[in-house]
Write the structure tokens for this entry.
Amino acid sequence: MAKPELLIDTPLLVCSARLLAFIRAFAAIDAHAALFPKECRTCGRVFQSFADYLRETKPKGHVLEDCSDVMRKTYTMMYRHCPCGNTLVLSVTGEIMPELEDFWTAVREEAETEERSIREVVKAFSEVCDDFIINGRDPTDLQDMGDQE
Ligand SMILES: [Zn+2]
């Protein structure tokens, strides 16, 4: 079977076009009042938007965890470190992000096709996603630079 077309292929960052399509869905959670502004209960720091949140916090481990089995509904936890050291968690549900289930299906399939762990696939995706949301670097621009249609 053909491998998914790789858009970004460096030793650290491998992410397929199929996964990158979900970046816009993640960027859209910015608009959800259920998530932002987000306050750190330890130091009181307030993150007004998703971009602020990503800019001012540091990713923790694999960042995104699919907790749908435990929660018995579409449910993803996003882990980041507040500058104060506290672990912040964003809970993203299917109501907040309808594409969430499709995202995890794409992650699992990419992990299988590429023989990489889900953790690695998620990490590469989050790095590209963070860059897009923080710096406005649109990965679809990168796609145009490729030699494949
Ligand atoms: Zn804090």
Remarks:
- The pocket of zinc ion is lined by residues 40, 42-43, 45, 82, 84, 86 (CB under 6 Å).
